[in-house]
Amino acid sequence: MHRLLPFLLLTFALGACRSSRPGAEAEPVRVMSFNIRVDVASDGADAWPNRVEAVAATIREADVVGVQEATPAMLDTLMARLPEFRRFGVGRGADGGGEQSAILVRRDRFDVVAGGTFWLSPTPSEAGSVGWDAALPRIATWARLDDARGPTFTVVNTHFDHVGETARRESAALIAERAPRLAEGGPLVVTGDMNATPDTDAYAALAAVLGDARLVSESPAQGGDATWNAFGNATDDRRIDYVFVGDGVRVLRTATLDRTIGDVLGTDDPRLPSDHHAVTATLAF
Fold first, then answer.
1. What DSSP element (H or E) covers 204?
2. CB 143 within 8 A of CB 12
3. Which phi and psi angles does 53 have, rounded to 5°?
4. How far apart are CA 15 and CA 282, in angstroms?
5. What does pTM read for this prediction?
6. Are 136 and 103 in contact (CB under 8 A)?
């Protein structure tokens, strides 16, 4: 294993936390979950180089973003367009490479004061471990964010397996058990592509301890229910991308950003930024 990997993977904590303004009212935080679709040339006109500008523009609409299917090269390209954001996370491979469930946060507002990555398997601390009937290693990355405009809170971002039903159920149970402990009693947000619709055991395991932001929002949800779009070729209405919240977190409004590249960039491009729509939730702690 690469000699730097233990530092990257192990949970860390930093002592000095930036405090919000005494007596000031906390500002809401717009959180996003966005599967940005891995870079594969076979996507043709929908391949990453043709979508990156729209993905970057979409991310700019949020304060904290959990991305899925993001390789290091994709993140390098993306972050070059997003200097106002910093990224946190490692890849799912045993050497820390491969796809990440990275967390992106605005530099001028948040400090990452603790965080880490664990694997969705019976051995969460074993880098590269594959859990249950999963086809691939799967991870969750978490970060505790000190907010210059509000209280410290914890965000967990993940991507469940696309094949293993048992893996999705057990992954959900692992996150439902571990995420509240990581939050240490503070506000908690969980983002991710769960590859699970609301009628599944995996969803039920999460919903037993967390609130589905779209369902508990104080305002009617904007956009359609479906989040997977297959670049406009989806034949069903699968909602598999979520923002979940812990106790005490108010959801002011939510949205599924089911828009074309043209909608995002102000052009006439009818393609979509990804094969998933981004979902957002505006939260108050």
1. helix 201-207
2. no
3. -65, -40
4. 28
5. 0.93
6. no
Q: Which two tokens stand for residue 168?
A: 């999705």
- Name 273's Cβ contacts closer than 8 Å, sequence gap at least 6: 36, 51, 54, 55, 58, 259, 260, 261, 264
CA-nearest of 272, 209, 278 to 240 is 278
CA distance 100 to 208: 26
Sequence length of the chain is: 285
* Residue located via tokens 């989806």: 234
Tokens 């949205």, located at residue: 255
Q: Please answer whether residues 68 and 35 qualify as being in contact, where contact means their C-beta atoms are separated by less than 8 angstroms.
A: yes
Q: How would you label 73-93 residue by residue, b for 16+ Cβ within 10 Å and e otherwise? A: ebbebbbeebeebebbbbbbb
Query: pLDDT digit string (tens) for 67-83?
Result: 999 999 999 999 999 99
Q: Which sequence spans correspond to the domains of the chain? A: 25-284
Q: Pick the closest to residue 101 from 132, 75, 63 (CA basis).
A: 75
Backbone angles phi, psi at 223, to 5 degrees: 80, 170
Q: Considering the domain 25-284 in this protein, what is its CATH number?
A: 3.60.10.10
Cα separation of 172 and 174, whole Å?
A: 5
- The amino acid occupying position 9 is L
Closest CA to 166 of 203, 209, 134, 118: 134
- Using alpha carbons, list the distances in angstroms from residue 152 to 105, 125, 248, 267, 271: 13, 25, 13, 39, 38
Report yes or no: 126 and 133 within 8 Å, Cβ to Cβ.
no
pLDDT tens digits, one per residue of 142-151: 999 999 999 9
What tokens appear for 173 in the block? 């149970």
